[in-house]
């Protein structure tokens, strides 16, 4: 590839066109700016998929987040705020879970990948069919984890902790040991 003396930050130069064509060939979206609310369809070239970028401008300040009880598949005491999408429907969603000190979620799986970002506090995250505190990772605020679909994992909080969870709906949780499932406890 020839090296150009053009300024790589100038729109329309060879560098931008190459990066843009690489992203398009991977089925990704055009990285250049679009107007708020614009829906953009790209016509794929042979061997690529059609890509739609729908932009919905959304900003939530912490005080605007609406917290409610965590869903019944999680232990009592947790609070959840839905930031984007709908965890009950097919598609991407982002939620925050506010866990009190000592909040524990027994080993479980999800049918979709789960991405966790620790917003505050400390989350201990481990993998496997049984809780093994010595093998868990301590995740402080700012930490990030990706758990592939079907991975058995468990977690507990130290201090009140807020965890952002991004995944694909509909949200499902299956406990390794059905007796750990809060939905199975008699009320």
Quick take:
The chain is mainly β. The protein has one helix at residues 14-25; strands at residues 39-42, 51-54, 68-69, 79-84, 91-99, 104-109, 114-127, 137-140, 144-147, 153-169, 174-175.
Structure overview:
The chain has one helix spanning about 15-25, and strands at about 40, 50-55, 70, 80-85, 90-100, 105-110, 115-125, 135-140, 145, 155-170, 175. The protein has about 190 residues and is mainly beta. The chain is globular and about 40 Å long. It contains one helix and eleven strands. It folds into two domains: about 15-55, no CATH class; about 60-185, Jelly Rolls (Sandwich), CATH 2.60.120. Strands 3, 4, 5, 6, 7, 8, 9, 10 and 11 form a nine-stranded antiparallel β-sheet that branches. Strands 1-2 form a two-stranded antiparallel sheet. The termini are far apart. Strand 4 (about 80-85) and strand 5 form a beta hairpin.
Poorly predicted runs are 1-54
- CATH superfamily caption of the largest domain: Jelly Rolls
Strand tally is 11
Radius of gyration: 21 Å
User: What is the string of helix and strand elements?
Assistant: HEEEEEEEEEEE
CATH architecture of the largest domain: Sandwich
By DSSP (H or I, 4+ residues per run), the number of helices equals 1
Q: How would you characterize the largest beta sheet?
A: 9 strands, antiparallel
